[in-house]
Design a protein that fits this description.
By secondary structure, this protein is an alpha/beta fold. The protein has eleven helices and twelve strands. It has an eight-stranded mixed β-sheet, with helices on both faces.
């Protein structure tokens, strides 16, 4: 568990809109608001989990933080450097410190390149090594991700999905970054392999002092690996807190619905816990609802929810929620009752 309060990456009012064009002259008629005014802080040495339904903007947020997408507005700070203000070459140089592990290990590796070339390519791009230095570093990285160094001359099609993802991890580590965006790195792998990759990521974090933004669908895995968890819905963050606080005292109705969907291998559990079924479809990010984005599916929505978008506010220390139905005084009272009952 990370206890550092030193901010490594700071996201301020970040927006990423994708234009919608129609007609012969390609006139813009709207925008897909994939990320809409998100503010987060990632502390040095921690793992910040990012969860939500498909299409809620998790991957877009991760790519925008790394400036793989140029944001529509807002700021991303790496330490004290505003990445959104950098010129192209300065921004390229910052990629040494920030890397990404992609979701699909079958699509993220070039099938025409050997493992040596895949892992060594970042070193060539930044002029950090050449010749035998690259060979030695590739062998070192393969050992680090628990692959045989003799695999360096093989090609991606000769490996399983789990082995390919380890190669992707080794490539991300080539330039000794301090911040890595893990974009659902285990979702395309067999369940038996997922735990191995997650344990590898945890070991690398401990040994190398890495900081992760860990994007995933598997809520139980996010709880295992993360220090804090942010919940996204339709381009906005609706709740943010410590991992245990999120799971044992979730406040936003969307978070509660997500957690109720986690399968628990205990029949007695379902006698006291009811599954929350959300009605309706997720609204289009091109035309989101007014006010609270979740109100069209929320079981406790009231008329005031449509009037103004709720801010992400701290209702108890370290626990942020964007919902006008959450009363901080009632939450604090509940905390006292829980502690007294232990």
């Amino acid at each position: 568990m990370n206890n550092s309060n030193e901010v490594l990456v700071k996201i301020e009012d970040l927006k990423m809109y994708f234009p919608i064009y129609r007609g012969v002259i390609r006139r813009q008629v709207g925008s897909v608001r994939a990320v809409d005014d998100v503010s987060l802080e990632v502390y040095k040495g921690e793992t910040l989990g990012l969860v939500g339904e498909s299409g809620c903007g998790k991957t877009t947020l991760g790519r925008t933080v790394l400036q793989l997408y140029k944001p529509t507005s807002g700021h991303v700070y790496y330490e004290d450097v505003d990445l959104t203000k950098l010129k192209p070459e300065a921004q390229r140089q910052m990629r040494k410190y920030m890397q990404m592990i992609f979701q699909d290990p079958y699509a993220s590796l070039n099938p025409r390149m050997s493992v040596r070339d895949i892992i060594g390519d970042p070193m060539v791009a930044f002029g950090a090594a050449s010749g035998k230095q690259i060979d030695d570093r590739v062998r070192e990285l393969l050992q680090l991700v628990r692959l045989d160094p003799e695999y360096a001359n093989r090609y991606p099609h000769e490996f399983s999905g789990g082995q390919r993802q380890r190669i992707g991890v080794a490539r991300a580590l080539a330039m000794n970054p301090s911040f890595i965006v893990c974009d659902e790195p285990i979702s395309a792998l067999d369940v038996s392999i997922q735990a191995q990759v997650v344990n590898l990521l945890e070991d690398l974090q401990r040994d190398l002092g890495l900081t992760y933004l860990f994007i995933a669908h598997d809520l139980s895995m996010v709880r295992h690996i993360s220090d804090r968890v942010a919940v996204m819905y339709l381009g906005v963050v609706v709740e943010l807190s410590d991992r245990n606080e999120i799971y044992y005292n979730s406040l936003h109705p969307y978070t509660k619905a997500l957690l109720s969907a986690i399968p628990v291998p205990d029949p007695a559990y379902y006698e006291t816990h009811q599954r929350i079924i959300l009605e309706g479809d997720v609204p289009s990010p091109a035309n989101p609802p007014s006010g609270c984005r979740f109100r069209t599916r929320c079981p406790i929505a009231i008329d005031e929810c449509a009037l103004e978008r709720p801010e992400l506010r701290e209702v108890i220390p370290g626990h942020f929620v964007a919902c006008i139905r959450v009363n901080p005084e009632e939450v604090q009272h509940k905390e006292v009752i829980d502690q007294e009952s232990l």
